[in-house]
Amino acid sequence: MSRTQFLLRRIGQSLLVIALTYVFVFYVLFLLPGDPIESRIVNPQNPIPAEQAAAILAYYNLDRNGLEQFWISVTRLFQGDLGFSLGTGRPVAELIRDGFAETLTLAGLALVFALAFAVAIAATAVLAPWRWARGLADKLPVVALATPGFLVGLVLLQVFAYQLSWFSSIRDEGFKSLILPALTLAVGVSAPIAQVLIQGLRQAYGEPFVTVLRAKGVPESRIFGGHALKNASIPALTLFGLTVGELLAGSVIAEAVFNRSGLGFVTEQAVRAQDGPVVQAVVMLVAIIFTLVNLLTDLLYPVIDKRIAAKTLGSGTGSRTPAADLDTRQEVLTP
Amino acid sequence: MSQPTLTQAPAVGNATGPERGTTPAVRPRRPGRPLVALARRLGAADWIAVGFLGILLLAIAAPGLLAAYDPLEVSPGNTLQAPSLAHPFGTDYLGRDALSRVIHGTGRTIGASLVAVAIGLGAGSLLGLVAAYFGRWVDGVVSRIVDVLLSIPGLLLSMVIVVALGFGTLNAAIAVGIASVATFTRLMRSEVLTVRNLPFVESAHHIGAGSKTVLFRHVLPNSYSAVLSMTALQFGHSILWIAALSFLGYGAPPPQPEWGLLVAEGREYIVSSPWLTVLPGIVIVLTVLSISRVSALFRTNQETKK
């Protein structure tokens, strides 16, 4: 299979997955037995005025059959119309737009923290001169993976906001109030990366080239940064998709704990109000990002690691690329 | 890339080991009392993990035996007390004993995780088995289902299903179960694909065994060991996911004691009574750690047996 064929096939596959996911989410949210929209919007507890509620009901064409409803939703999607929130009556697109930037900033900062943690933990686990430090750093990711995100957040909140008063728990302090939620997200996300880095670093330090570098008098810091870490990061790249997924899903918890108003908060509120249209939009957005990141990882992997390039393109099975092949959770979570 | 071989190694070893049974001389360890052999190799941390799971089992089977108080009994004069001998985990805003609530919540949280794992394991491995064994379009359809389920991060996928099913412990459990189907399907599929190409399966075909016999007598018993260790892992995951869903308020309605909900209730008093969130949280962490520790024991036991 030529490189272009492989590329096209992989892109087509991703588009198909996104389309099928849309069908799946639509059917789960709107067409399961029971009446997901009417019972929720015509409800004494619903804050939306009766007229607006009636308009939203009419908008969703509940009198049509499932296939027609699906078709209407797809046409509207291509016109950029995502429907209306059943909980607030606001257009879904607006809710998403308002929350997206905030969550993106949070996830970005969390990713930076997570990478820093992962490298620090892996370096300690492999290189620390003390046995106890190596052992501790080796176990740390396992404990982090067993800790619920909300617990991390609440402990950080208790210690740094209430006990030490370094951060305000109520006031919005701009960048500063991003730090604790980002740390919360980073703890869980860094653990799998650290585990893969530890494995990679151990392997790299066992290679003969390290001995050669030492014999040549290359300083240890350069051996670590310029050679060992570089080699160890290649397998960690397969985790990139998983990491992005964890960041997006984890933001629901982090934003709930810290009362932030990003996409995660929108999701949390939407699930609480069983607000189908909002949940559908958020989940599809996440699924699209997640699928595209996985696609990108698969396509970039051969570019970064030339050894894989030969294998992937030569074997003729385009779908079995490294990221797709690796059952990351199985591999990573095993202590 | 070492990853794929790592997951497949135990199954291949198992397949060539006991099933053929032609080379008993190579295996000096007799499979008589595996539990005794296992117990001898346990370290201190392993014993702690086993002990902790034992306590949990007791808390599920007979919560009244461990808990000193009724988990729902309100005691107005005793609200928000710090941990003491009488109330090791303190008391909550209604004066209920927090430890008793954790103990009584064990059955609900662990039970929900068991339901979730059972759904994931059952549906997932069946799909994987069918996909790998029949191949062709069946495999294509199953693979697309797996792709769709994996295209949404697990916690979000379970939230979608919770929206469709409604709140409650059982619904949260079903949601988490559906969210973990794809993981099992993918693993089972790859395990079966490995086993069905081994010579003894081919021989069984040649002797004239029907495809059902081959599937259930030969392929399945030799491909499930990796799936079983995944089950233990996924069990830990399920506890975390169910705790997260119940923390967000999608699980059991309050006054019911459910671990995630206990943390969420304690959250309101985190400034004055941090133990109400931290101690139940630590119980969750210890549970997941113990499960992964014990499942690792069984895995290493399998590997040494081959």
Task: Give the topology string of chain A: H per helix, E per strand.
Answer: HHHHHHHHHHHHHHHH
Residue share in helices of chain A? over 70%
CATH architectural label of chain B: Orthogonal Bundle
Number of strands of chain B: 0
Greatest contact pair?
A-B, 63 and 57 residues
Gap from first CA to last CA of chain B: 24 Å
Secondary structure tally: strands of chain A: 0
Extract low-pLDDT stretches of chain B. Answer: 1-27
Give the strand content of chain B.
under 5%
List the helices and strands and how they pair.
The complex is a heterodimer of chains A (335) and B (306).
Chain A: H1 3-30, H2 38-41, H3 50-59, H4 66-78, H5 92-127, H6 131-146, H7 149-163, H8 179-206, H9 208-215, H10 220-236, H11 240-257, H12 263-272, H13 276-304, H14 306-315, H15 322-325, H16 328-333
Helix pairs in contact in A: 1-13, 5-6, 5-8, 5-11, 5-12, 5-13, 6-8, 7-8, 7-11, 8-10, 8-11, 11-12, 11-13, 12-13, 13-14
Chain B: H1 3-16, H2 34-40, H3 44-61, H4 63-66, H5 98-134, H6 136-150, H7 154-165, H8 169-179, H9 181-196, H10 199-207, H11 211-247, H12 259-267, H13 275-305
Helix pairs in contact in B: 1-9, 1-11, 3-5, 3-13, 5-6, 5-8, 5-9, 5-11, 6-9, 7-8, 8-11, 9-11, 10-11, 11-12, 11-13, 12-13
Main location (chain A): membrane
InterPro entries (chain A): MetI-like, MetI-like_sf
Region (Disordered) (chain A): 314-335
Explain the overall architecture.
- Chain A: It is a multi-pass membrane protein.
- The complex is a heterodimer of chains A (335) and B (306).
- By secondary structure, chain A is an all-alpha fold.
- Helix content of chain A is 75%, strand content 0%.
- Chain A has helices spanning 3-30, 38-41, 50-59, 66-78, 92-127, 131-146, 149-163, 179-206, 208-215, 220-236, 240-257, 263-272, 276-304, 306-315, 322-325, 328-333.
- In chain A, helix 1 (3-30) packs antiparallel against helix 13 and helix 11 (240-257) packs across helix 12.
- The longest helix of chain A has 36 residues, at 92-127.
- Chain B has a single domain, classed as MetI-like fold (Orthogonal Bundle), CATH 1.10.3720.
- Chain B has 13 helices and no strands.
- Mean pLDDT of chain B is 80; it is low at 1-27.
- Chains A and B meet through helix 1, helix 6, helix 7, helix 11 and helix 12 of A and helix 1, helix 6, helix 7, helix 9 and helix 11 of B.
